[in-house]
Write a structure and sequence with these properties.
Elements lengths: L3 E6 L3 H11 L3 E6 L2 H10 L4 E7 L7 H9 L9 E5 L4 H9 L4 E4 L4 H25 L9 H14 L5 E8 L2 H8 L1 H19 L4 E6 L2 E7 L6 H11 L10 E7 L7 H14 L8 E3 L2 H22 L3 E10 L4 E13 L3 E3 L5 H7 L2 H21 L6 E5 L2 H4 L4 H12 L6 E6 H6 L1 H14 L2 E7 L6 H6 L4 E4 L1 H7 L3 H16 L3 E5 L4 H9 L4 E3 L9 H10 L10 H16 L4 E5 L3 H11 L4 E5 L2 H11 L3 E6 L8 H10 L8 E6 L2 H9 L4 E5 L3 H22 L1 H8 L15 H10 L5 E5 L34 H8 L2 E8 L2 E12 L2 E10 L2 H8 L1 H15 L10 H17 L4 E8 L2 H8 L1 H17 L8 E6 L2 E7 L3 H16 L13 E7 L8 H18 L4 E2 L3
Parallel strand pairs: 1-2, 1-3, 3-4, 4-5, 9-10, 12-14, 14-15, 15-16, 16-17, 17-18, 18-19, 20-21, 20-22, 22-23, 23-24, 32-33
Antiparallel strand pairs: 6-8, 6-9, 7-8, 11-12, 11-19, 12-13, 25-28, 26-27, 27-28, 29-31, 29-32, 30-31
Helix pairs in contact: 2-3, 7-8, 8-9, 13-15, 25-26, 32-33, 35-36
């Protein structure tokens, strides 16, 4: 068994040597020269150090500071510390012991005393550690659950005359703290609370940490533990340094009968606290007969729920959803009711929450889903018009790995159109486990299901969440509508949320609508659909069928922007891939089908059963084939023979070929000797196959571009050209180095970033807002491109880039070839697990978003700058054309700014510019996608989306008129005129952002020639 390790923290070298000589035979020793070095070593060796000998008087940090810092750390505080000092006064010793020291020794050192006290301290620590493993919670130092039961039972048995309370403390939404700030911060909070509980209760209190965010206390009733005590404790908990309110609740069980099992007492205190979760105005709840009765009712329901389902006691009711403008029925929600043989009709609130806790909700949900599908099928068979039926998917269902298959199989079983079965998922489910729910919902949406977010506004709502979550319909919670629509501010919030949802192309359903006043208010807010008692209550199937047979029906329109983008992108992708052909050669059909399934979205797939068929196809179609996936063992002509034909023919010799065969070394070596581009062993891992195909194609494009380099170099020297790469006569060692690098990076590119687009991707893409390197190429370099900086500084730069595709690490290495500057770009996609664990991806993305926002804002005015225009305007133009929408752009210029600058100075001119920017910003709605940017100097650019040109011109003129009436600094009567040039996207077909701005600028020049405050909007 090895020696124990001790840390000696002493600033005097002679004292360190003396202590080392005394203790080195028995212990391994670490040395620290000051308090800061002591803390660094403690943190580095926290699990190894058995004790610390700490001098009081040291530079950097003295011994007292070290003691304070150690005691504030849950792990370090477990290490015993012996303090040494030449100051032998009692007050110094007492102060050290109060700060957590285990012992105190005076200088000069006495070897026997030091050895003895150190050995006793370490032994005491090890003994306590063993006891704590059995009795104590490792994180907080409080009793664990089982030992708490034992200590409480012992206390109640030995103190029969005393009256006690069992108190449960629960932290509201503790998971949110862990997810946002990290597990380490969550652990520190729990340790902080544990210390407060010990101090609050005193010696007669027994405290326990049951795990997660739940604490229990046994507290004498005669102690001063009042409502004020609970409030004071909550305030102290919120003193923990974290940027979020920490909400706690207490559940109290008065112990009257000590024969009740301790576990049952704890359950009752927990039930009391559960009763007030989510109620922010109530801090403490007490267990009483109503909770006991609730327990009895729950037991009754649990005992008969399975029989009720089997005997048909559960029935599906339907509540219609009305289109608000025409008051036609557009859909309905399937709701479950329990017709109990003795209790009669039971409302969902009396059993659904219990079913969610005990898991029976999953069986009940499946019953409702199947019933709804049957009823839709009945209308199809009867030849009647369909309306969408929405069914609830509970949080429990989301964790069922077979959920997607279950729902899809039901649709297939009853052969119903999938868009008529909507899935409602509550808002709180999205916040509980967003990654899991996003994954499941995306699978459901890809199949064609319509997703509704239910009860928005009932939980921890985030407006940002609306833009992020994969939904098609937003349902506003009834309580939100009741509470908010009665106040002017509430109506403003409600209107804003509806407008935001509409801007995101989400349909809005207001549920729980009961009054004419609510209907009138919702109409003014342009709400789409309503559901509630005002129009119809939930009703039996018979009554519902009769109602819709006698009513006018309409379709529920629910094309979210996410869904439209997805469908449009899929269509565009299919069109783009019509010219790309992959030839799959294999005599076994299942292999061909498997590979085809992996690439059907990227390539047109051609199949051949043997080499002869494949060669005949290639001779006729060699110009359109992009890549060949080739098996080796086939009849008629095997893969080796076909590969020889391909490499021998001038027309096909450079065609990328990947061998897909059984992985034997001889076959693999022979394939590479015959110049196959890669070798993939069977059975296939499709992720590996996709990755290899991507790399082979990237390398192929690079080689193609290098062969044409000389011609491209000449073209690039022409004015206005951006295409160029390095000369083709690169040294062999550079080519070999590039090939070697491709073994280690996802992307390796050789470019001249000052003059070229990014190669080797033949289909260039624009870079996204966050990163250039998350895609294979883009049209031109960004102004923050690190490859440009690498050339300018003749060095290497690294950076992290991220996009929706993930997080990437980028290296740009400057090199010099044939007297020319160049850069090797190396890109690696970081593994998602690594990103989540190391970088806390959500927080990283949030910080990068903040940085990008600052980079896109004009420092003087706060409106957007040229960078924002460069990043987004082309995207807006593309989006408008894709959906056949209008877009208006105006260039606006101050007419009298020079006079202000010349007369009163540029600082006064800056005040005028800021005032104009504020007026422009407040008169164009950013929530609808409009934006204002400072183009430079005294020029501003305004962009409005989804607007007719007549309306746009009118708005520009009204704002110009508003600014013209404003007075500006300098003279009371000084006014500034404005000129503007306006252009609509429809006027310049096929234009890009630069062309649109140039047209507006041309009209601005004409406006300035015509006089002050003039607007030109046509040629």
């Amino acid at each position: 068994m090895g020696k124990a390790t001790i840390l000696i923290a002493e600033d005097e070298n002679i004292n360190r040597k003396i202590l080392g000589r005394i203790l080195s035979d028995t212990y391994d020793i670490l040395y620290a020269c000051d308090g800061q070095e002591c803390m660094d070593l403690l943190r580095e060796h926290v699990g190894e150090i058995s004790a610390v000998l700490l001098d009081i008087v040291m530079p950097e940090k003295d011994g007292y500071e070290v003691l304070r810092e150690v005691q504030s750390d849950a792990e370090l505080s477990k290490i015993p510390i012996i303090v040494s000092s030449q100051m032998s006064k009692d007050e110094f010793e007492i102060r050290a012991l109060e700060l957590g020291a285990q012992d105190f020794i005076s200088k000069p050192y006495k070897p026997d005393i030091i050895r003895h006290r150190l050995a006793n301290t370490i032994k005491l620590r090890e003994t306590a550690a063993l006891v704590n493993l059995v009795e104590k919670d490792e994180l907080t130092g409080l009793y664990n659950k089982q030992f708490f039961f034992r200590k409480v039972e012992e206390k109640l048995r030995t103190d029969e005359t005393g009256r006690y309370d069992l108190i449960c403390l629960d932290i509201e939404r503790f998971k949110l703290i862990n997810d946002t700030f990290g597990l380490s911060t969550g652990d520190q909070l729990l340790y902080h609370i544990a210390g407060l509980l010990i101090n609050a209760g005193g010696d007669r209190t027994i405290c326990s940490h049951f795990g997660a965010d739940v604490f229990f206390l046994l507290q004498p009733q005669d102690a001063a533990f009042t409502e004020e005590t609970y409030l004071d404790l909550a305030e102290k908990i919120n003193a923990f340094p974290i940027q979020i309110q920490i909400k706690v609740h207490y559940g109290v069980y008065h112990i009257h009968d000590i024969t009740v099992p301790i576990s049952a007492m704890c359950d009752r205190a927990q039930l009391a606290v559960d009763r007030i979760k989510g109620q922010y105005d109530q801090l403490v709840a007490y267990y009483d007969d109503s909770i006991r009765q609730k327990l009895l009712n729950e037991r009754f329901i649990t005992d008969c729920m399975k029989e009720a389902l089997e005997s048909g006691q559960f029935q599906v009711y339907y509540q219609p959803k009305y289109e608000l403008t025409g008051e036609t029925i557009a859909g309905a929600e399937a709701l479950v009711r329990w017709l109990h043989p003795t209790l009669g009709l039971m409302q969902p609130g009396s059993f659904i929450p219990l079913f969610e806790k005990n898991g029976f909700i999953t069986q009940l949900d499946r019953f409702v889903w199947e019933t709804a599908c049957k009823d839709i099928r009945e209308r199809i068979d009867a030849g009647k018009k369909l309306i969408a039926i929405s069914v609830n998917v509970s949080r429990n269902d989301i964790y069922n790995l077979e959920l997607v298959e279950i729902l899809y199989n039901l649709v297939e079983k009853y052969q119903i159109p999938i868009q008529y079965l909507h899935l409602e998922i509550t808002e709180t489910a999205y916040t509980d486990n967003p990654q899991q729910i996003f994954l499941v919902i995306e699978k459901l949406r890809k199949l064609g299901f319509i997703i509704e977010m239910d009860d928005f506004g009932s939980g921890y709502s985030s407006l940002n969440m609306l833009a992020e979550v994969p939904i098609d319909i937003l349902k506003l919670d009834m309580r939100f509508i009741k509470n908010e629509s009665n106040s002017s501010s509430g109506k403003g919030i409600l209107s804003f949320i509806i407008s935001l949802a509409k801007w995101l192309n989400l349909a809005v359903v207001a549920e729980g609508v009961e009054t004419e006043e609510q209907i009138a208010s919702l109409r003014t807010m342009d709400c789409n659909y309503v559901q509630g008692y005002y129009f119809a209550r939930p009703m039996t199937k018979g009554d519902f069928v009769k109602l819709i047979d006698e009513s006018q029906l309409s379709e529920m329109h629910c094309k979210s922007s996410v869904r439209q983008e997805k469908e449009s992108d899929e269509t565009a992708s299919r069109r783009a891939h019509q010219g790309r052909v992959m030839l799959i050669v294999d005599d076994i059909e299942v292999n061909r089908v498997t590979l085809a399934g992996a690439f059907y979205e990227e390539y047109q797939i051609q199949e051949a059963e043997n080499g002869q068929q494949a060669w005949e196809y290639l001779q006729k179609n060699f110009e359109v084939v992009d890549i060949v996936l080739l098996d080796l063992l086939m009849p008629v002509m095997d893969g080796f023979q076909l590969l020889k034909h391909i490499r021998s023919d001038e027309r096909t010799r450079q065609l990328p070929v990947i061998i897909t065969s059984q992985g034997d070394k001889d076959g693999e070596a022979r394939s590479f000797a015959m110049k196959a581009d890669d070798f993939i062993s069977k059975p296939y891992n499709l992720e590996v196959v996709r990755h290899r195909v991507k790399n082979v194609m990237a390398n192929y494009y690079l080689q193609q571009l290098q062969e044409e380099a000389f011609l491209l170099e000449r073209i690039s020297q022409m004015d206005g050209q951006e295409t160029a790469v390095l000369p083709s006569n690169q040294p062999v060692d550079i080519q070999a180095e590039l090939e070697n690098l491709r073994r280690y990076f996802d992307i390796v590119r050789l470019v001249d970033p000052r003059r070229t687009s990014v190669y080797p991707d033949a289909h260039a893409h624009k870079c996204d807002i966050h990163g250039c390197y998350s895609v294979w190429g883009k049209e031109k370099r960004c102004n923050n491109c690190i490859s440009l900086r690498a050339v300018q500084d003749q060095t290497r730069y690294n950076k992290l880039e991220y996009s929706e595709k993930g997080l990437f690490f980028v290296i740009s290495q400057y090199i010099r070839i044939d007297e020319q500057d160049a850069v090797i770009e190396m890109v690696t996609k970081l593994d998602d697990t690594y990103v989540d664990n190391v970088f806390e991806r959500d927080l990283l993305f949030m910080k990068l978003d903040e940085l990008n926002h600052r980079l896109e804002s004009d420092e003087l005015t706060g409106v957007y700058n040229r960078r924002h225009i460069n990043l987004y305007l082309n995207t807006y133009i593309k989006h408008a054309r894709k959906y056949d929408r209008q877009l208006g752009l105006a260039m606006i210029d101050l007419d009298g700014l020079k006079k202000i600058n010349d007369t009163y100075g540029h600082l006064t001119g800056d005040v005028a510019i800021k005032k104009v920017a504020h007026i422009l910003k407040t008169n164009f709605a950013a929530s609808k996608g409009d934006f204002v940017a400072r183009f430079g100097g005294d020029e501003f650019l305004v962009v409005c989306r989804n607007i007719e040109m007549k309306v746009f011109e009118k708005r520009i003129r009204s704002v110009i008129d508003l600014i013209s009436r404003e007075t500006f600094p300098g003279e009371e009567k000084m006014r500034i005129g404005f000129s503007a040039g306006c252009v609509g996207l429809v006027e310049v077909p096929g234009c890009d952002a630069d062309a649109l701005i140039a047209k507006a600028d041309e009209r601005l020049y004409r406006a300035k020639e015509s006089g002050r405050s003039c607007v030109v909007a046509s040629d």
